[in-house]
């Protein structure tokens, strides 16, 4: 059985616990949880039970969650009003001065909303170097695919607190609770089941196929560039990964 607490902690207010994607059509099921309609209907057809409580569920009894829908619409409207442009220490802030991760001219910081109390968990990614602007464009262009990390927009640095503004860009992105796939698997006591690995690879392949449709070559596909949003070593249905790092894309 999957870890139900992990299902409930990933951006639980605005995101579907099955897909880890912000709601489009949220519905309430008999287990008291909110899901994306398409995702829970597919789940019920396949298993007939709740992905969280395992109690029986019926498609006929799911109903729209208007409260969550209003919160999601408010969040998306706020993003649009900001034109996906944010200011550091005005709209968002770093949760810590120390980065969660740094390598190859990138610095990733855990971040917090200042304009929204109920927004999804976020990180700030600072990209340095001559290709910073080009890489940032890839993130923004590809942000709507379910297995590519979502980018909420650009963040303008605070010039009074930072002198390093040349050839650097900051992006606001969704937070991956489990980090990158390489380090995550290294920390496991044993390898996941083959079915779990196949599901992870299928999600990566789905993202890569999307890039191919856009005539984009990732250029650096590796486990370190795959983010883990949810993991269960026994049940493939409870695993969500998303592709990131377009520094070598073209």
TrEMBL record:
GO terms for cellular component: plasma membrane; receptor complex. InterPro entries: Kinase-like_dom_sf, Prot_kinase_dom, RTK, Ser-Thr/Tyr_kinase_cat_dom, Tyr_kinase_AS, Tyr_kinase_cat_dom, Ubox_domain, Znf_RING/FYVE/PHD. Coiled coil: none annotated. One of its GO terms (biological process) is cell surface receptor protein tyrosine kinase signaling pathway. It holds the Pfam family U-box. One of its GO terms (molecular function) is transmembrane receptor protein tyrosine kinase activity. SUPFAM superfamilies: Protein kinase-like (PK-like), RING/U-box. Residues 9-82 form the U-box domain. Residues 86-250 form the Protein kinase domain. This is Non-specific protein-tyrosine kinase. It comes from Didymodactylos carnosus.
